[in-house]
Amino acid sequence: MDALIAPLLNGSAQGALLLLAALGLSLTFGQMGVINMAHGEFLMIGAFAAYLVQQVVTASNLSIPVALPVAFVVAGLFGLLLEVTIIRWMYRRPLDTLLVTVGVGLILQQAALQIFPSQGVPVEKPGWLDGQLTVLGYNWPLRQLFTILLATACVAALSAWLKYTSFGRRIRATVHNRDLAETTGISTRSIDRLTFFVGSGLAGVAGVTASLIGGTNSQMGAQYIIPAFLVVAAGGIGQLRGTVIAAWAVGVALSFFAYWTTGSLAQVLAFILVIVFLQLRPQGLFTVRTRSLA
Amino acid sequence: MTKLKPWISLSGIGVFAVLLLAVAPLVLTDHWLNNLGKYCCWAIAAVGIGLAWGRGGMLVMGQGVFFALGAYAMAMHLTLETAGDRVPGFMVLYDPLAPLPVFWEPFRSAGFTLLAIVLLPVIVAGVLGYALFKRRVKGAYFAILTQALAVALATLISSTIRETGGDTGLSDFKYFFGFVLNDPANKLLVYLIAAALLIVCLLAVWQFYRSRFGELLVATRDAEERVRFLGYDPANVKLVAFVVSALMASIGGAMFVPIVGIITPAEIGAAASILMIAGVALGGRASLFGPALGAMAVGWGQSSLGSTWPDGWTYILGLLFIVVILFLPNGLSSLPARFAALRRRSPAEQPAPALAGAELEEVRS
Questions:
Q1: Where are the transmembrane segments (chain A) (predicted)?
Q2: What angle do CA A276, A281, A283 make, to 5 degrees?
Q3: Cβ distance B191 to B33 under 8 Å?
Q4: Residue B55 has what DSSP assignment?
Q5: Are B188 and B35 contacting, i.e. CB atoms less than 8 angstroms apart?
Q6: Does the pLDDT value for residue A148 go beyond 50?
Q7: What does the CA dihedral B279, B284, B285, B289 come to, rounded to 10 degrees?
């Protein structure tokens, strides 16, 4: 049993982190058809924000709770800046946004490399994350439980926001039919900006979590962007529940593959898994029914 | 986009051939000739990307995979040639009695190696392309999936130190199919082969573009549904372009090894694959010469600026992406047409972003 439980919990935590990274990507991709390759760098910005907060808020018990909203806002502002300066000119050229944001990502990475030490910076883990919780005879590392809880909270908040607020309703309307939404008086421009802010902000939150688990350096964004995108693709565009299930599945699969083989082979296997899955369901787990041809 | 008359393009290739094959060896120092050979290898891969992306609308962000197939096949053969009957040095570093891994064995044969350089990318691209295109996976999905493959392959190679040399890669080749690699005359020969292969690839693509297939490929890019309604299977059209582009990347990779003398995972991963895209975008993705010239320009920037001022080079590369894609979606090759349009004082013919409508549909669907 142990051989099953440990990778399962590990994988769930890994999936939760992936989910946090994919959540914002799924939002901006689903809503605007913009593939933001700098999303990983926004995650990195969140992690560095956590480090900077830690320099000011020295009580390590408090630094992470403070860092989460700060990282959300800082990464969100970077996203907003990107949207206002570049993305908005390119809404009709999705593949080109992908390339432009690759360029933005390169610049952000290089900037981080020059501002912060190249070997990365330490983000201190608060004491209350160090312990373990023993339930049913198993030790559950608190750090992993925290990641899972945080991801759950973010999904709950995001789905409530989308479902019950007027902003959320307008966003969903824009996703379903942009032209019609525009006709009914929704300013899709400001909806786009808001979506980009929230989507990028979520990457910042993911970055804080990532900084607690792995290193905080200029390369960290690059390692999340592709798994996050695979999660979005497997889950179906703009489908929150699809993203959740896909993230968990990819996380658990990665963890099991890594348990049986090696970490790098696990990546290859997970990649093959997603390809095979897209054979079965090219549109992802869940799709919006449309009458479009393609 | 300017439609050059076929004979103008052909004579352009001719001039290019004379410059590369006759003038360059006379004018350039050995060092720069070797560099030029390296750029030629990237240009070969870029010509393929131009075919798949510029003409076919398939953004391949993981061309490093196919570059790697050719490069590692060649490198394995050269390593074995250098090692002779013994097991290559890096393998016995950890375990002096280590046997040669099974998959290395066939690469002793020169014929098998050459065949592998051609067949491996065709098989891999064929299977991957068939799986993706038949299920109508396209646009951004296709782009990211190919990049994921490049990342996965680079990670895999990095982690298998004993079988592939890991991060250090394969290097120290002494022979090239029997020729001593250090001999300047043989170095010139290797350069000439690379340059000639680039010319052959340009000719192949030139012929492709004129053919019925070329028309079909562009039609598929711009209006895939209509092509389907006309009775063609767009998946097959894309598959051919993707496979040819993979083959060119593999050839570029194979020539890269004897010229540069080393192949590492860093040359094939996400960053390297994106560098190839940068050149194509700069030169003009849909034009004949754009991809090759762009790749050479980026290669030159990489080796001159990148070595003296690596930080600045990364910023320049990032800005290049942003500025070119934002303002010049068809690359530098579209500049003459734009200037001509300005001079005629006619309302500037916006070289419309070739892929606009169709792409949006892809992402939304």
A1: 12-30, 42-64, 70-91, 98-116, 145-162, 194-214, 220-237
A2: 120
A3: yes
A4: I
A5: no
A6: yes
A7: -90
Query: SS3 for A133?
Result: strand
> Cα B327 from chain centroid?
24
**Cα–Cα nearest to B332, from B344, B341, B323:** B323
Shortest CA gap A168–chain B (Å): 19
Minimal CA–CA distance to B202: which of B282, B290, B269, B274?
A: B290
Would you call A292 and B359 a contact, using CB atoms and an 8 Å cutoff? no
Nearest chain A alpha carbon to B273: A102
Dist. CA B52–CA B247, nearest whole Å: 11
Inter-residue contact A75 to A201 (CB < 8 Å):
yes
Q: What is the tally of helices (H) and strands (E) in chain A?
A: 11, 2
- Considering the domain A1-280 in this protein, what is its CATH number? 1.10.3470
Q: What is the pLDDT of residues A241-289, one digit of tens each?
A: 889 999 999 999 988 888 888 877 888 888 788 878 887 887 777 765 5
Residues of B in contact with A267 (CB under 8 A): 151-152, 155-156
pLDDT digits (tens, 9 = 90+) for A6-45: 788 888 999 999 999 999 998 888 877 888 999 999 999 9
User: What gap in Å lies between CA B149 and CA B131, rounded to an integer?
Assistant: 14
Helix H or strand E encompassing B176: strand B175-176
Question: Quick one: A259 exposed, middle or buried, by C-beta within 10 A (0-12, 13-18, 19+)?
Answer: middle
Residues of B in contact with A22 (CB under 8 A): none
Q: Report helix, strand or coil for A134.
A: strand
What are the domain boundaries of chain A?
1-280
The Cβ-side half-sphere exposure at B168, using a 13 Å CA radius, reads 11
CB contact under 8 A, A275 and B131: yes
CB of A105 closer than 8 Å to CB of A40: yes
Is the interface score ipTM higher than 0.90? no
Instruction: Check if A289 contacts B (Cβ < 8 Å).
Output: no
pLDDT at A213: 83
